[in-house]
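Action item from last week, closing it out:
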Amino acid sequence: MAFPYKHVLLVGATSGIGRAVADRLVQAGIKVTVVGRRKQRLDEFVAKHGEEKASAISYDVSNIDGAPQFAADATAQHPDIDCIFLNPGTQRKYKLTDPKDGDLSDFRAEMDVDFISYVALTQAFTPFLMSKSTPTSFIFTTSLLALMPAPRIPAYSAAKAALNAFVYCLRDQLRESTVEVIELAPPLVSTELHDYMGIEKGRGMGMPVEQYAEDAYQALEMGSDEILGGSVGPTEIFQDLADKRRKIFNDFAPMLRDVD
């Protein structure tokens, strides 16, 4: 089964999983418009793949109020977009017992990038995707930490758990539309996300990002809407937990849809 979308708008694509998946999609013949803050890296991506296969838009997802205008500009510029891939992320440690270790504004800013920006962009792009007569999709990057939080990164863990719940709700609300909702929940992957630990240590952890991008693309080609882990790590444990949660949700959702 081939990946069914022809033009992916990938937000959060200047490094890490977003950049690696963007490269893999282009290799598969899919046009990709990359989005991020760092214009130089966006330009490098376009130069690497050529303007027929790649394009770029500068946008900072922390500008929550700017999401509707960004969506309007992006879809006007590229009306053939049929997949919105949301991947932005930031991460840092918090010692919750020490009030001097990050104030509320730091925590809130991380939640804005890792969760609220996804909600804002989803709301901004949903009418566009629903207006199309052909299949479209949202792809969200969450994390296995949505199922099992890491104590030292509570903001990131909480944001990914919230995003996972949001994906469940969105998928159900779009169940009768042509918009598919897909979740990628990566394991620990070696990227710049962990540079706050020190580059050598942070990028020395986890599976190679190119390997994860390949695993993710192969799973996307198979048509799954919930892709957990990769070929490295205890994916089976998380899959069992996710399957049970999905069954509970599917059993109860019909009873809760019409509750005011």
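Closing note: The chain is about 45% helix and 15% strand.
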